[in-house]
Amino acid sequence: MTETLIADALAARQADVPIQTRSARPTSFEPADFAAPSAREVNWKLSDLQRLAPLFVDEPAESARAVTVEVDAPAGVHVPSTGLDAPVRGEVFRPEDRPSAIAWKRSEDALHLRLPAGQVLEQPVRVRLHGTDATARSTAHIVIEAERDSHATVVLEHTGSAQFAQNVEIIVRDGASLTVLSLQAWEDDAVHAAAHQAVVGRRASLTHFVVSLGGAVVRVNPSVRLAGEGSHAELFGLSFADSGQHLESQVYLFHEGPATKGNVLYKSALQGAKARTVWIGDVLIGADAVDTDSYEANRNLVLTDGARADSIPNLEIETGEIAGAGHASATGRFDDEQLFYLRSRGISEKESRRLVVLGFLMEIVQKIAVDDVRARLIDAVEAELATMEVD
């Protein structure tokens, strides 16, 4: 009897212990299987739950046109995807939280982009998503399928105002090379939660960008599984948070296959009262991922008092036969030596600070190979810096 009571007590206690590791999180296509998020869960404790609350409601979208979608792609790339059981949809995507399960359920038809096998698309495929109503909830499920030995770039551009829950399912088949850039240039009242899940095949590569500049609350969480031998992923992020903005990314990189390589670099700048960024980076090197090489880093530059940057890198290694693995995180203010160097050459303090911030963020911007997007981001960063005040 005593042993039974102890076992029951331990089971009850374990049931109350929050799941800490990313690989252990439950998945479900049914929103009811996920409780309403609270600050108790490790994946929600740093999020702005109050402003994200509309995305926790499992009801039909309030307006079918709350977010309009425009696709600019070569003929045959945008293919039909009707119904929750449409081909390819759900091949790799498994909702890990309530908003992504709602987005799955309420987006009966997916936007499916199929990049043709063996072809190189010289021009990027562009998907423009524009919110038309800041008070209306909307959802979307997007499938990006890079067929074997294809080479392409897909740009997802978000503008306007909306309450938007979104899934992005990315399949990079053997030998393919895919770049996906998600640009959040929302108006100041938009609320956006997105789950990006990707699987990369044998000798294939994925370059993934998350660029968040606009929106009241933006939460874009990329998850990448390097499943094939010799697969490779580079995950880059850039954000600039102003007063009252909450910009968040929780990154998961799972080295599953042997001889895989991964590199994660996210950078943020923050200015203004209650400007906040959140970055959580989880890397798992699985038991079969021998000869893996992995590194993740997050850098944050706090420009004014009242701003806050949370940065949590995590690394799990299940095999001792790796080429290398590491992680780093740094949050701070201006480098006094850099400022002194610039000011000693006759550059004003305000201009010196502008140059330091610009140089800090350009490391990410310069990696973007789409010329007009890169130029637009430089202009956007410059516009942010024009409002920077010298303490």
TrEMBL record:
GO biological process: iron-sulfur cluster assembly
InterPro entries: Fe-S_cluster_assembly_SufBD (IPR055346), SUF_FeS_clus_asmbl_SufBD_core (IPR000825), SUF_FeS_clus_asmbl_SufBD_sf (IPR037284), SUF_FeS_clus_asmbl_SufD (IPR011542)
Residue ranges the record marks as coiled coil: none
Signal peptide feature range: none
SUF system FeS cluster assembly SufBD core domain residues: 136-360
Family membership: Belongs to the iron-sulfur cluster assembly SufBD family.
PANTHER family tied to this protein: PROTEIN ABCI7, CHLOROPLASTIC
Listed name of the protein: Fe-S cluster assembly protein SufD
